[in-house]
Model the fold of this input.
Amino acid sequence: MGSVVPLRPDLVNMEGYHSPQVDVAVRLNTNEAPLPPPQAFLDALAEEVRTTPFHRYPDRRAWDLRRALADLHGVRPEQVFCANGSNEVLQCLLLAVGGPGRTAAVFEPTYRLHSHIAHITGTGVAIGQRHSDFSLDLQEVARVTTEADPQVTFLCSPNNPTGMAEPKETVEAVAEAAPGLVVVDEAYGQFAPWSALSMVSDDRAVAVVRTYSKTWSMAASRLGYLVGPGDLVEALEQVALPYHLDSLKQAAGRIALRFRAEMEARIAGVVEERGRVAAALAELPVETWPSDANFILFRPLRVEGAKVWSELVKRSVLVRDCSAWPGLDGCLRVTIGTPAENRAFLDALTEVLG
Ligand code: PMP
Done:
């Protein structure tokens, strides 16, 4: 039956984007941090709760948080835009730079929200393909950017869900070739060997997007940010809703930055575990890809990916089923968890693969 509401026809048949939230013991499907934030962070935040003037609107421009992030990255606060998760950063970006009659370029397989949010904001999507090893194909980048003349070109480094970071020369080459803004989504940037943050300046159309959801153990807070040219940041402030960042979130983001050493130790722990999981996967009948992130993409060789996914769920282990995504036939993606979670995943997978 049709809706009584005159919905946008282009949204009616659009697939939603979600990872099933199944009730299992071991959740390795959404690339969260395996550990909660340090206790001292929670104590400082609790103190902040006690002193926050809840009857007042938050600082609309989130200056204290932006100043703290600017110090962290060696940029000006005017070059930092914060929002409710990096997904809202991406949405604001496409509201400000995309929209009807404009185009965003993506290179598949990559983070699906880039094209999903483009569709929602009425932005056209130009799709290019990666090489078969999932590295970026610069000839394909040249073809797509020449044909589509996109206002926005999305890169994702390390790329979700395939795992590899782009080499600096590649990002530099894309920034040279692309006619509009190049957005480097670095949701997993802290795990990577280098960051495109070093490429940001006011006179270059390059922006980097980051999140507190992964390495800062703050997925529940929904906080992400962009570092980019000042005039882009001004435009993003224009399209964001007034007071979109609540006071507690601003404080949480600011306080988290005091715990950088703890965060770095956790990254080292995840990277070490990633090595162990990769080594164990290499002994199983699966194809795997190298990862610079906190997850690993793999393809079971003898059993269908979707079947492996549901057999893992039966064993109370949840991974991401990418098996029906374009270019990822039969693939699954596992987040690196605690040593115990990783053991449980590997034991279950070994059993499922016989
Ligand atoms: N970008 C990439 C590449 C991601 O994988 C994710 C999380 N799945 C996000 C952005 C969004 O993260 P958040 O909205 O939690 O900041």
